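Could you please consider the sequence and fold following this short note?
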Amino acid sequence: MLAIQISRTGGPEVLEAVQVEAPSPAAGQILVRHAAVGLNYIDTYHRSGLYPLKLPSGLGLEAAGTVEAVGDGVTRFQVGDRVAYNGTMGAYAEAAVVPADRAVRIPDSVSLEIAAAVLLKGMTAEFLVRRCFHVKQGDTVLIHAAAGGVGQILVQWCKALGASVIATVGSEAKATIARDLGADHVIDYGHEDIVAKVGELTGGQGVAVVYDGVGKDTWAASLKSLARRGVMVTFGNASGPVPPFAPLELGGKSLFVTRPRLFDYITTTEELDESAEALFAVLGSGAVKIDIGQTFPLAEARAAHEALEGRRTIGATLLLP
């Protein structure tokens, strides 16, 4: 079968399309034949070495498809079930073996493509708005990269929870997307000062929470945009890692900072299922819609990474086997 692997870290050029033998499920595992593979920014961190892997390695953490075989002792799924998973390395392939207790069943109302596009990003949004910081009616939130995969879901979910959303984007085209998703205010950080604009929009109070997947480039502005006792949620490094900082910098407004990981919020199968159920419920209600902005053949994963890092993608991106 076709798979994408890396034998060294670096830029998109290190991605190699290779032919490997299709795996067989061991006890407790299922073999999933992929219909679609999700592309996520964390994949670029693994490829670059920011998040180290043992090499050589497959790449990719998220896919959806059909169960083709089950290992001994598996009762959670059977052959033919429609499933999705995230968190198991090696999704950039035509098929993969996955621990049965780390996959979730896809409801009939959700297509395999949408499931592959939304599971990791959607579960990330779920824990960010429901558990990392509990967004509630009347909160004002700041969401960076609002036209990106996670950003689009965050905007819609926060609006569904009754929050006022200030979104940041990098172009007028992306500003239109954020507005169409329901953002109350949109800041184009290429032309506007984030801190000044947030101050203007909040009467100088600041926001209750910042959701920041950009990292280095927005860190300082994010902290300055928070209200007293505000929560800084730095969950990604699209522009590079956040620089070291002194805790004393948080003292002026008694701020909180967290650097959460999805996998610490779906540690158990019960947490995984609860997160997936909440995600599929908000999709089913129509409160959150998923935009698959672009697709690439699996063999062209390099081009997909180049587009993602070049900020030329909008919404979710899929690799199609």
